């Protein structure tokens, strides 16, 4: 049986990805690997806290255990995917790449919402990268929602969703599409209704992973 590995930076999203994998990757064995200090260390000093080396160690453990692909479930670490793929020799997928492609296809005025600057920066960079690849000019509005991360970290999911929801409603008035930079923000999207698409990464990313896995399976003799 094909095996893939998710690398997570927060335990809160593991049940979401486990459920999505059961739906979209029913014949795939899934491994979940976690380093829940990476996001905090990215905010301090990624080099000094050896984030790249830690991701490589997790990726190597996944490959040694039989995984034929690795998926980063966190946008904050997406910038490490290309180098890690070269080192491991297997696909290293960014969970937010499919979301970025969808956003670029929907419109040129894109609002990006995050609860941490360490996630906002790589998500905005990914959107610009995918827009350039598609040959589509985009204008990005970037917003960090104050107090939302503190709310969810203290267990106040409802408070987090209210703060993020208010930002969605405000930015939807002048933008073609809203991008939520963190997988953990998906609940906030479900709580509001606006006249533009509000994109989250988990399902789009897992669907793309299923496409990649299908390609790998077809390539295997």
From TrEMBL:
Write the lineage as a comma-separated list: Bacteria, Bacillati, Actinomycetota, Actinomycetes, Propionibacteriales
One molecular function GO term is: amino-acid racemase activity
Listed Pfam families: Asp_Glu_race
Family from the record: Belongs to the HyuE racemase family.
Give the residues annotated as coiled coil: none
Which domain of life does the UniProt lineage start with? Bacteria
Protein name, as recorded: Asp/Glu/hydantoin racemase
């Amino acid at each position: 049986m094909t095996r893939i590995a998710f690398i997570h930076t927060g335990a809160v999203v593991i049940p979401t990805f486990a459920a999505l994998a059961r739906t979209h990757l029913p014949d795939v064995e899934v491994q979940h690997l976690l380093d829940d200090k990476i996001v905090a260390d990215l905010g301090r000093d990624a080099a000094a806290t050896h984030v790249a080396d830690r991701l490589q160690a997790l990726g190597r453990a996944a490959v040694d255990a039989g995984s034929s692909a690795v998926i980063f479930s966190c946008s904050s670490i997406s910038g490490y995917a290309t180098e890690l793929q070269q080192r491991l020799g297997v696909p290293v997928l960014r969970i937010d790449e499919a979301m970025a492609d969808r956003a670029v296809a929907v419109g040129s005025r894109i609002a990006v919402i995050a609860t941490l600057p360490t996630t906002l920066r790589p998500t905005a960079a990914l959107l610009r990268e995918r827009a350039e690849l598609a040959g589509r000019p985009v204008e990005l509005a970037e917003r960090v929602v104050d107090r939302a991360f503190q709310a969810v970290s203290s267990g106040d999911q409802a408070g987090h969703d209210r703060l993020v929801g208010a930002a969605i409603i405000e930015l939807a008035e002048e933008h073609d599409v809203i991008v939520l930079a963190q997988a953990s923000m998906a609940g906030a999207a479900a709580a509001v209704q606006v006249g533009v698409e509000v994109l989250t990464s988990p399902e789009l990313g897992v669907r793309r992973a299923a496409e990649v896995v299908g390609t790998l399976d077809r390539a295997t003799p």
